[in-house]
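In response to a reviewer's request, we include the raw inputs and outputs for one of the modeled complexes. The two entities were modeled together in a single run.
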Amino acid sequence: MALTLLLGVMLALTALGIPLVFSLLGASVFTLFIIRPELPLTVLPQLFIGGIDNFVLLAIALFFLAGELMTASGVIDRILTFARALVGHMRGGLGQVGVVSSVVMAGVSGSAVADAAAVGPLLIRSMKKEGYPASFSAALVETASTLGPIIPPSIPMIIYAVLANVSVGTMFIAGILPGVLIAIGLSTVVYISARRMNLPRSERVSKTVILSETLRAGLALLAPVIIVGGIRGGVFTPTEAGAVATVYVLLIGVFAYRALSFRGTLDALIRAAHGTGAVLVILGASSIFAWIIADQRIGQELAATIRGLDLEPWVLLLALNVIFFVVGMFLDPLPALVILVPVFLPMVTAIGMDPIHFGVMIVLNLVIGLCTPPVGALIYLMASIGDVSPAAVVRASLPFLATLIIVLMLVTYIPAVSLTLPHLIGGH
Amino acid sequence: MLALLQRVVDGVCAALLAVIAALAFYQVIARYMLGVSTPWGEELLRLLFVWLVLLGATRTAHMRIDLLEQAVSPRVRQALVVLQTLVAASLLGFMIWHALTLIELTAYDRYTALPVSVQWLYRAMLIGGVLWLVFTVAGVAGRLRGEN
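The model returned the following structure tokens for the whole complex.
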């Protein structure tokens, strides 16, 4: 009853084009009026602020800032030159450059949309110049950007860790292997398409150039090592890692690459503040939503119902993935996480699934939703950067999407994919 | 006037985020190099962060699904825009109103290590909410003309 009300009102408001933060808020307020009319309404701003007022979440603002500073300091140029020296000579080399630079970018930023906006314009311009189809280029950057929230640091992983009450560091480490699998998969698709579409290759560069480009990009390549190493080694918390990453990127932008101006820094701060605001108010609004779900024990009831059905675990996992996928077609990963995790986490822990494993699965599933119509933020972003129609991006992205879905299935059915690294180095 | 206010809010957001990054970095340095712990640091960071979020939110484009708007005639679209604004504005008004009550209720609550009142936490909702309301309503004219 409460869940039907919540979801019904939310869907109705969202369909009318009301921003998600207000449809979540509206649905929660309406539902509370009906089912808990005696409740003092001051709980609303209290829960809203309570959902934001969390030390771990500060890391989101800092990783947003580190990513923006990366873009503003021209580090992307260095990464692209480095990747080009490394893999540019292969057939479809610029495509491989796209995969490698997305991996490197993902190691500093934690947001897919920020990565796509950073890597996209430069890479797609060069790809078009060398004769790659615009839709192929846009589709590649679109799907490779999903690495941003899979390879640490990751904003959705931080949010999941807070919702599921698990360690952010463990979630970060659990994302590494799935991220590597995605990179290998996308790279394979590029390799095959390159042959089929007869894509160009760039000139092979000498070993000395590779070495010097690696050294020049080295400072940027070190950032992810500092972030993950620092958190894992217990040197700093994820929030402090965000601060260290920010200061590190700032320093190399100003002193090593001499490309970061005062204006550029200011713009990066403002953009990061806007991005943080957009993400975190949704979290604030959803914490009222999540409070109702907990208050009405919806997750537990659902868990009991499902246990009564006595489904095979693999059927249940498949069903969950289908549900998440459909939700992800319409909702961004963050609001979807806040709604889905409290509903489904009790159920999966009841069947003995590790919350870390579940976290990687749901994050990956919802992030793929950024590339699926009708509502996929990355589709429209890449269509506008690549100057092609959204439909053309979707068509060209099908083989890449298939790869992402294969990795999702591996993550779902082979727990070791997400749990091996946390067991080995994460102390999980 | 409105543009000036928006630039001021952006400036404050940038300053808040810069202070947050600097303070969080200082905490790492203080702990490892100077061996000092800063118990007020975490509370201050969280307070500044809530302000950053609620001010930043007033100046950003919010995720929404505009499939319906694109499918209907301009006349219906205008009606939709008015309806969307009304829903957003009344929810903001509602939050502002209850934040005011909450500020009264927390008059005697103080942070543990930070020498300020917890009222400052809920004032973020009040100030952010009012600015958000102003920018939302001020944006309607443009959206009715078909800008996004």
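As requested, we also summarize the result in words. Residues 131 and 270 of chain A are 36 Å apart (CA to CA). The two ends of chain A are 38 Å apart (CA to CA).
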